[in-house]
Amino acid sequence: SLERVLGYAHPPRDFLQFLLPNFYGSPAHHSYVDAFSGELISDLRNTVGLRRDFIYWGVKNYVEGALYVGVLPLLLALYGLFKGVWRRELAPYVILFGALALLALAFMFGTGAYSLVFHLPGMNQLNSPFRWVFALTLAIAALAGIGLNVLSQGVGGRSRLASGFGLLILVAGLALILGLGLIFAGFARFAPMLDQLVLELAGAEQAFVDGRMFFSYQLPQLLTLGALLIISGGVFLLAARSRSRRWNLLALGIAALDLLIATYGFNPASDPLLLEFKPPAIEFLQGQAGHFRVTSLERPEDGRILHPNTAMRYGLDDIRGYDSIIPAGYVATMRSLQPQHLLDHNQIAPLYTDAGRSPAGYQLVLQSDMLNLLNVRYALTAPDFEMYLPGWQSIYRQEVAIWENQSAMPRAFTVDKADWDPRWLAEAGGGFKFAELDILGGGLHVPRYEAASISRDSGREKFIDVSVANDSWLVVSESYMPGWRAFARPFGSGEEAEFGLAVRLVLANLQGLELPAGDWTLRLVYSPESMQLGMFTSSLSVAIILFMLGAWFWRATIGLNTESSSGVAKVARNSAAPIMLNLFNRGIDLAFAIVMYRLLLPVDVGIYNFAIVLFVAFDIFTNFGLDLFLIRALSQQRGRAGYYLYNSSLFRLVLSLAGVPLLAGVMLLWQSSGAESISSDGLVAIGLLYIGLFPASLSKGMTSLFYANEQAERPAAIATITTMNKAVFGVIALLLGYGIVGLAAISIFNNALTLLVLLWAGRKLIGRIGPRVPDRRLIREMAGESLPLMLNHFLATVFFQVDILILQALKGAEMVAQYSTGYKWLLAINIVPSFFTQALFPVMSRQAQDDITALSRTFRFGIKLLFAVALPLAVAFT
Question: What's the pTM value of the predicted model, to 2 decimals?
Answer without folding.
Answer: 0.67
